[in-house]
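Duplicate of #3305? Posting structure anyway:
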């Protein structure tokens, strides 16, 4: 019954029956407490997981430091590449289990879980190869002459050291790998703090990394709460780097905590991305594309396009199409292949989403569809669309992280004015423009202030496409070459000849 009558793989059943501990220094060890992780589609418990606090983080960081100072740092890039390719094959071999762990723990529909497994394998292989192409430089001209005589300078790219990786719950193992793969490729050692909402797939990652031959202490995984384990990792004096994905509010705390030893910080934070649909857009493409820009992963997606700007001429047809599309989405358990919309991660998050919906109604936005929490077990909120939204409303200004779309009617076709509306947000993560005009598309793409702008699609991220935020959406980039740069230092070496 814990799986709502749906079959799961025997290996998933076996995984849930295991005792789940912390990975420190190459061994599975007890934590200081346990938490019960639940299936958000049913509210029923899945299993108990050991969690750690400051003490366990301290032990994990010490292990990571020893490993960093040990034989790991003498491995060649090619040797790390071989380990990572072996790890990618292990992910492939365990793809079904991995997908089911995130479906059960997070609630994501199966099609998304399967997509993230395929992308994950590609990403690990990509970073395994990328590290072989990281090169230093020589200064130009390579030899220089000073008062002391002739000298030669070249640069080396070196791992930043012990990296703390703090992961959210919305795409759990995918975000884990987006940090772990480039960090390990770069030669860092890592301490991972998964989200307390989704602790399971990280544990499988840990086992697969051990099985692939990563030496003890190179990978440490400490499940636990943000305020305890997460906060200790962020402030730890012997951690050289924090890579954090999560809310903007927590991102601020991470930055404050990092000031003690001025560790390097990368932040992938929240968003409230603009979606601009011009009068000449191909609505047959725009309607499903814009709907899924908001509703993919129940809107629990940092790059969700939740501020729709619709040209006056197509506004009503667009809204009608979006509403029909939204009503056609199938809410259900992620294990059911027919499901396109899973549950909200937790009761608290569902209550927060409903609070925004109530605030939207009270502020005078018009509810077109959705807007209620379903009276059934689990945290189900159907896709919700508001029109007559205005820039001052909280549903337009704040990240809801739920299936709530706001539509604003454009009363101008001046692209600068439209860009100003799109840019009226503290965030700047993603965004999209829907038009058949090449010129308008690229003009808006250059004017929208965000880390990614898509044309006639939305949020099409990929292994080699740098991704990150302008403004309060974050610092730095993940994916692609920049994703590995985040774990490398540059050293200049000068030799007097
Ligand atoms: P969150 O900030 O609540 O938690 C993220 C992680 O930080 C969790 O592991 C949590 O335990 C930990 N944490 C919480 N408080 C901490 C503290 N004081 N010190 C250290 N760690 C702490 O975010 P969430 O609710 O898990 O995730 C949703 C948020 O993540 C949304 O705002 C979303 O936009 C953002 N997100 C951003 C991206 C991106 O790439 N920009 C991707 C996914 C999610």
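Output from current build:
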């Amino acid at each position: 019954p814990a799986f709502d009558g749906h079959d799961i793989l025997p290996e998933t059943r076996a995984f849930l029956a295991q005792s789940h501990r912390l990975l420190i220094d190459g061994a599975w060890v007890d934590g200081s407490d346990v938490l019960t992780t639940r299936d958000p589609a049913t509210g029923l418990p899945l299993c108990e997981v050991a969690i750690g606090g400051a003490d366990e983080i301290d032990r994990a960081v010490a292990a990571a430091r020893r490993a960093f100072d040990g034989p790991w740092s003498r491995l060649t890039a090619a040797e790390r590449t071989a380990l990572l390719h072996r790890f990618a094959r292990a992910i492939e071999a365990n793809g079904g289990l991995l997908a089911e762990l995130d479906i059960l723990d997070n609630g994501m529909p199966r099609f998304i879980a399967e997509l993230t497994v395929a992308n994950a394998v590609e990403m690990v292989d990509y970073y395994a190869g990328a590290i072989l192409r990281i090169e230093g430089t020589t200064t130009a001209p390579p030899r220089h002459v000073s008062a002391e005589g002739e000298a030669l300078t070249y640069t080396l790219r070196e791992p930043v050291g012990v990296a703390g990786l703090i992961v959210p719950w919305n795409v759990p193992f995918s975000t884990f790998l987006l940090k772990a793969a480039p960090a390990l490729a770069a030669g860092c050692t890592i301490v991972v703090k998964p989200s307390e909402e989704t602790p399971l797939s990280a544990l499988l990652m840990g086992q697969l990394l051990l099985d692939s031959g990563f030496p003890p202490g190179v990978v440490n995984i400490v499940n636990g709460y943000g305020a305890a384990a997460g906060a200790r990792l962020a402030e730890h004096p012997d951690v050289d780097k924090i890579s954090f994905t999560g809310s903007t509010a927590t991102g601020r705390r991470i930055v404050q905590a990092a000031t003690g030893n001025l560790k390097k910080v990368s932040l992938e934070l929240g968003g409230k991305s603009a979606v601009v649909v011009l009068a000449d857009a191909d609505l047959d493409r725009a309607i499903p594309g814009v709907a899924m820009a908001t509703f993919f992963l129940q809107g629990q997606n940092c790059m969700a396009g939740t501020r729709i700007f619709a040209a006056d001429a197509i506004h009503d047809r667009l809204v009608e199409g979006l509403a029909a599309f939204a009503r056609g989405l199938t809410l259900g358990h992620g294990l059911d292949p027919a499901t396109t919309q899973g549950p909200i991660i937790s009761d608290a998050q569902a209550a927060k989403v409903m609070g925004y919906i109530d605030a939207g109604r009270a502020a005078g936005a018009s509810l077109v569809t959705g807007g209620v929490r379903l009276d059934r077990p689990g945290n189900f909120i159907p896709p919700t669309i508001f029109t007559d939204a205005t820039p001052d409303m909280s549903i337009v200004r704040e990240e809801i992280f739920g299936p709530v779309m706001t539509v604003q009617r454009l009363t101008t076709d001046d692209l600068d004015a439209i860009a100003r509306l799109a840019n009226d947000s503290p965030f700047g993560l993603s965004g999209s423009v829907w038009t058949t005009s090449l010129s308008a598309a690229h003009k808006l793409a250059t004017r929208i202030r965000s880390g990614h702008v898509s044309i006639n699609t939305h949020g099409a991220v990929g292994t080699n496409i740098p991704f990150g935020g302008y403004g309060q959406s974050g610092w730095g980039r993940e994916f692609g070459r920049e994703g590995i740069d985040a774990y490398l230092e540059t050293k200049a070496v000068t030799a007097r000849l």
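Confirmed duplicate; merging threads. The longest strand covers residues 149-159. Residues 166-170, 193, 195-196, 225-227, 230-231, 234, 245-247, 250, 253-254, 268-271, 302, 399, 401, 429, 469, 474 surround nicotinamide-adenine-dinucleotide (CB under 6 Å).
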